[in-house]
Design goal:
alpha+beta; two-stranded antiparallel ribbon; about 20% strand; elongated
Length: about 180
């Protein structure tokens, strides 16, 4: 008896479809990983910006101890009014310096009738809170400590992404 062997050339359609499915699932997994990585990078950037702004305010408070002890570092500055009288006057009071410091860090620096920088412009939905005279750890009155808190909304990576944003809060305690 003579038997002939079939010689196979190429791939079957089932093998090609199976490999396409495996490659497709792998690519979907990689795209999900890329989106998670981009969101993590964005959130890390926001935390870094918040940290730098809080440290800058803390340094400005250390440079103006009379403004701190006078209680002039408060949250009620208006972003539409300019507190820049210290830039044009030869003498500024501790209150004027404190209000300018808070306005620049909360609202940004006024350049060409537009504010640049600051918590409001660098972090989405951000709120700056300054509590002077409250102990950070215990919540009791402590005349020396100041708590600086920034709360912001974690932005989504893309505008079409589902609304999964969460509020983030960063708080430091400082003795200016």
């Amino acid at each position: 008896m003579y038997t002939s062997k079939k010689i196979q050339h190429g791939f079957s359609m089932v093998e090609v479809l199976a490999s396409l499915v495996v490659i497709g699932v792998g690519m979907l997994g990689l795209s999900g990983l890329q989106i998670a990585s981009m969101k993590g990078t964005s959130n890390a950037h926001s935390r870094n910006v918040a940290s730098m702004l809080m440290m800058e305010l803390s340094d400005r408070m250390r440079a103006n101890p009379l403004g701190v002890t006078g209680g002039f570092y408060e949250n009620n500055v208006n972003c539409t009014q300019d507190e820049n009288q210290c830039r044009t006057a030869t003498f500024c009071s501790a209150e004027n310096v404190a209000r300018l410091d808070v306005q620049e860090l909360k609202c940004g620096v006024l350049k060409s009738s537009k504010r640049e920088g600051g918590v409001a412009n660098l972090l989405p939905g951000a709120v700056l809170t300054i509590d002077h005279g409250v102990n950070c750890d215990l919540g009791i009155v402590d005349a020396d400590e100041t708590t600086i808190t920034i709360t912001w909304n974690n932005s989504n990576v893309h505008k079409d992404q589902a609304a999964t944003a969460q509020n983030q809060t960063m708080k430091i305690c400082t003795i200016p």
